[in-house]
Design goal:
This protein has 184 residues and is mainly α. The chain has ten helices and no strands. One of its GO terms (biological process) is response to antibiotic.
């Protein structure tokens, strides 16, 4: 048993039972080990959850970084959509990601920020746009994962929510609000 196996099994457990039911006791049973042996790899459950969040983001981390010839709008939209897709890959993916430190992704974040600044986005606006898009995406996915496929008993005058359309509309507002601030 190594760290990667523990994380992979923990993610499979997450998909089966949801974040609230993931426990080191349950994970140890799944792995056929005693619970204290997990502490060899992770000192606390918080450390395990951080490793799970990092591993769950691997598909997004594997997406290509922007290059100098890319249009900032197209890249920003694709990057945010890719982030959403990745969060949706795991049950409670947004909850798992929320609050997780981006320590493993700092170089990629710096590259993305430099790309936006080089594209004419003022540095502060680039930072805020990335933060806003991230938090908007996590919040959107939290709402989507909180009631997947369930139809609410809403009054007739309240429209049902199409999560993807609502996400796209919000993302368009973020990019539209940023565009006038871009030089050139």
């Amino acid at each position: 048993m190594n760290r990667e196996v523990v994380v992979a099994e923990a993610l499979d457990l997450l998909d089966e039972v949801g974040l609230d039911a993931v426990s080191t006791r349950r994970l140890a049973q799944r792995l056929g080990v005693e619970q204290p042996s997990l502490y060899w790899h992770f000192r606390t459950k918080k450390d395990l959850l951080a490793a799970m969040a990092q591993a769950a983001m691997a598909p997004h981390a594997a997406e290509p970084l922007p290059t100098a010839g890319d249009d900032w709008r197209d890249w920003f939209l694709a990057n945010t959509r890719g982030f959403r897709r990745t969060l949706l890959l795991r049950r409670d993916g947004a909850r798992l990601h929320a609050g997780a430190p981006p320590t493993a992704d700092l170089d990629r974040i710096r590259h993305k920020m430099a790309f936006l600044v080089d594209s004419g986005v003022p540095e502060r606006e680039a930072q805020l746009a990335m933060l806003t898009a991230s938090r908007f995406t996590v919040g959107s996915v939290l709402e989507e994962q909180a009631s997947p496929g369930e139809s609410q008993d809403l009054p007739a005058d309240v429209p049902s929510i199409d999560h993807e359309s609502a996400f796209e509309a919000g993302l368009s507002l973020i990019v539209g609000g940023l565009a006038p601030r871009v030089a050139g």
